[in-house]
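Researcher: Last one for today. Full complex below.
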Amino acid sequence: MKKLTELCLYEAREGLLNKDFTSKELVLDHIDKMESSRSLNAFITETPEIAIKSAEKSDLKLIKEENGELEGIPIGVKDMFCTKGVLTTASSKMLSNFIPPYESTVTGNLWSEGAVLLGKLNNDEFAMGSSNETSFYGPVINPWKGSNDKIDLVPGGSSGGSSASVAANIGLGALGTDTGGSIRQPASFTGTVGLKPTYGRCSRWGIIAFASSLDQAGPITRNVRDNSILLKSMCSHDTKDTTSSSKEIPNFENAVGRSIKGLKVGIPSEFFLKGMSNEIMEIWDKGKDWLKNSGAEIIDISLPNTKYALPCYYIIAPAEASSNLARYDGVRFGHSVKSSDINEMYKATRSEGFGDEVKRRIMIGTYVLSSGYYDAYYLKAQKVRSLITEDYSKVFKDVDVILTPSTPSSAFGLNEKSDDPISMYLNDIFTVPVNLAGLPAISVPAAHDSNGLPLGLQLIGRPFEEETIYSFAKIIEDCANFKNIENQWWLK
Amino acid sequence: MSVDKDNVVKIANLSKISFKDHEIEKILVDLNQIIEWVDQLAEVDTDKISPTFSSFEDDKGMKKREDIVSDGDYREDITINAPNSEEGFFLVPKVID
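Model: Here's the assembly. Have a good evening.
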């Protein structure tokens, strides 16, 4: 029999239902794996006691056949989701002592379906970053190594702990959040499957806010089917989030394996970047061939405002962040510096509690919202956002999905880009437009580059058509036959 | 557009963040680099375009619920993470002399 940590989510689900093993056995193996993988720094808080207790409860439910859809399945949760009674830090010094008295809707949905919390996963501070290097708790190390095994690579960000833990088989899936690519880019860097659902599909209640009009929770898993299973349990209509959709939640898993015959795939010319590596071009071409050979029609399309998406995002996201992060004032929760003067207290608390990237974004956001600059920057960006959204609405009249690379490169080295904000921001060039338009999109591992590192392809769909995305993603998965990590060098 | 040192001090004050002198030099460089980069939006003609503040389309806009109390009565939970609280209130330094 396979080791229990080598199973994927749907295999473990089957094994539990067949009584091949218990949830407690499954969870104990994962706890061992988590503990022997600490060199990756994927977890901020490990919750073995909670996991064992939940597993014991799940085993009783499985015996009585009262099980939920994720009964007894161990998963990791990005530290942006509030978990009742469990430290929730957003990977910031600011919240390094914060124990939420409430549960986020998405995690609550998972626990009521029987999922088991393994621990809270590291991420970029307040989800601001593309390499997990801005975390107060230190960077996460990518379990993948290139040909030079002395170089540690980043796992992508901001959901770097989520992507690394799933790639390293610590947990059968993980929750991430995606504001500009924070699920899809790390998925691409670690050979995992990451989906950003349509804006409104998952409730944002209890997720630490970064940019509220862009933030969306989503699953990271080792295959497409697992992803569709996890997503189903995450979704709900939530009256606590006014932007939570009341649309029906389909059984996404049914779409996995569905034919794509006769469906249309758009290839946007604006995503061909000058200087993009041949390897990215080749894998994109391969992706087209795979879909074509499976009966889809490939169509060249144009999304003319693509080049404005990143600058547009870097006005809107910091603006919303500067407003959302105003709540960290040292009065109600989190880090606090004592002073006899209230203004000094605010300033000292925020200067000590926030890291450099977060401060940079608060400063940009405050600037673009400040009197005299609001129209020129913030309002302008929201108008450009309309144009970007319109580009997509237009092409989705003619195509069912759009195929692009997920990232302009494979995983880079630790400290390689951390000194240059804009070169770091450019990592999200293919993912950001999707958030601005509120669309669903997935990254699926498609190939290894010449350095042996994973490369992902991105599929973008119409609003609320995650099912179509999953059907296409499964085809890419089957054709790519992507091989996971062989050398588990990090194990102690 | 670009910002100078005085602008940075003013924005920092609005942001309630204080920077040391050597940090101001660094943030000045970073901000100007980012502002110069986002300035490319100026070339887009948006005269007849209305802004999109949210891509939420479901039911055409955010839902409003009835204005009734549906939650509450856990004052202790709310103040449990406060650095200073007393009898269910948050304590702050004296604001008015």
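The longest helix of chain B spans residues 21-38. The beta strands of chain B are 85-86, 89-90.
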